[in-house]
Design goal:
The complex is a heterodimer of chains A (about 525) and B (about 160). Chain A is built from four helices and 35 strands. Chain A is mostly beta strands. Chain A starts with a helix and ends in an 18-residue tail after the last strand. In chain B, a hairpin with a 5-residue loop joins strand 8 and strand 9. By secondary structure, chain B is an alpha+beta fold. The chains are: A mainly beta (about 525), B alpha+beta (about 160).
Amino acid sequence: MSDVIAKEVQDLEMAPQEAFVTLYEIEVIEDTDSTGQSRTLYFHAENTEEDIKFNNGDTGSQPKIYTAFPMIMQGVESRGDGASNRPTVTIPNVESILRSGSAFDTESYPWDAENAYITGDVVTYDGKQYVRELVTTPTVNSTLPSANQTANGNGVWVLATASDLDGKNELVLEDLIGKRVTRRQTLSKYVQVGSATAPSNHFQFPKSIYVIDRISAKNPISITFELSSPFDLQNVKLPNRVVTSQYCPWVYKGWKESNTDVKSACYWKGTVRDTFTETGGTVQLAESPIMYFYTIDDEPLILHDLGTYTNANTVQDGTVSSLIFTTAHPSGGRNYGINGIAYVPSGVAGVPDMFFQSLQSGNTQTPSESSNQWRVVRVYTIWHENETYNPYIPDSRRSDYVYDKGIVYKCLKTNTNKVPGDNPNFWVQADVCGKLLSSCKRRYQVKGAKRFTLSDGNRGPDNVYNHRPNIPLSRKDRGSLSGSSVQVSSYNGTARFHGLPKNEFDNSISLPFGGFPGTRRLR
Amino acid sequence: MASRAFSFSIPKPNDSFSIGTPQKDMFTDLTAKYGTATSGGGETVTDIIEYNFGTGAATSVEIKFDRGFARQTQHRALIANFGDGYEQRVRDGINPKVESFNMNLANRRWEEIALISSFIDSTSPSHFNITLELETIKVVCNAYNVNIGHDAVQSISMQLKRVY
């Protein structure tokens, strides 16, 4: 409550122009950031058909226009004990007054209550139409969308449905359930009735915020919503997390700047930590362009297309000029350097057709899963429409892996020309978190292995195995095979590299692990 | 300066207006009641219009209230009573004045009463304007009574409520 109004209301006699004025706000699209202008509808039920202007003090100094609307809110009270009260709000049972073409729909920005998209903000990409979820300032972004891509902070593009494209607002009153209702009270001298300029101050009594919980009555004339306190929703617990000791409950890579819900604090982007670069005295945050992938068992996934095979008994310590898969010999005798990759063909003891990464230098052991000097790595190729991919039924970890549009997939069924992202029957995402603290550590604290210089002469930053992509824009985000060279991946406009991680960790990076490792297990 | 008045004005019924306007609605209403036949003995819609508006170019007629026009006013106020007898009072919202009016038009020609009742019928439940002194205010009429004292001489009384 504003100090001024708190003082004024103490007076026993209030001036004639100091009438109580009640204003209402209904949120039609859930607020996801501080700029939302079109998501709240402003009403008043005062004894006038004119608009009322009031600067509610929430966003800037621009007064809001409260439109005359027959509604009544009853039962608002505050109690120190007992169950919180459940007021009701009654409005006319006429959905069309909130729909397309109504004063509320055209007042500021057109909105679509059903889909929470800005209608009309549609772009065509790759023959399909996309709409942008309402996240920030509604300006049409020229960045081409791809599914679930965050385009420069301007929103997330999703495939448009027919009702998105008809430009109509399909609100039904039931959509209001779960939305917030705010009741404000002030004195009439702080509002302006009609078109004149509103007073700039925003003195008001404490506002009441409720959530529409259910429809308690509906008849041909009116509809009554029962409201509840935002903290009084059934089945909602605080904190909104389950305490587990071992497993992380966050959605893998689920955190976004625009996403303020509590489903995930996992902000890993599949790269090493962002670095700061200084250009002309300006410090900028630069996202590392090197991608790392791990399976659910925390085995590194590395790009096979860049490697060459050798039988040479060389030290693979990273000083060589390209990634080499050294084929293990049945009688042993190879000498592997740290981070070197060994290929185990059939005929050598152990599981055939496996790849291992040496965890120490001077490693002469035969690669095997049980050795502490080796760890398993899985290899993937760039997905190509002409290739046939196969699962490996006896051990699905050895199925074919492919990379497409920034994601590594594992084959579930033999297929040709099934786009991985669009065919969940044939492909499953392979880059999945193991949910353990060790999984978290491997990802967040990743360090790149020694540098491998590729034949095209492009080098990335030190300590990374990289490949500079060189692809036409039309093939954006999808690698392709062309002759013997590999063309890989520009993701979201930034050149990306496929990395080979070390088995070392950057311990200066804290982990957002969502579990509670210190908790005792309850039996 | 305009002169003080207690009156309201009725537009001339006219078939050429679009549906939804008082002019068209009144014309339709009066036609249904009195017909348009010329052999009606001077009691058709045309005769009613001619009686009230004359044969000239007048598009509206002003109806002045009779003596005995009554005006009731209430104020909506929020009042908090304290035990010591003090009250804290504050106006309740915008336009807290609740006004209602009783209006009589007694012993008029039936043509005039037919026009007035038709006007209310075609306006309700929306508002129309009346002039009180020098102020034009919006009112709604929820009920009216017509008293037929004589075939040709009738009275009408209305209850009006102010809206904003």
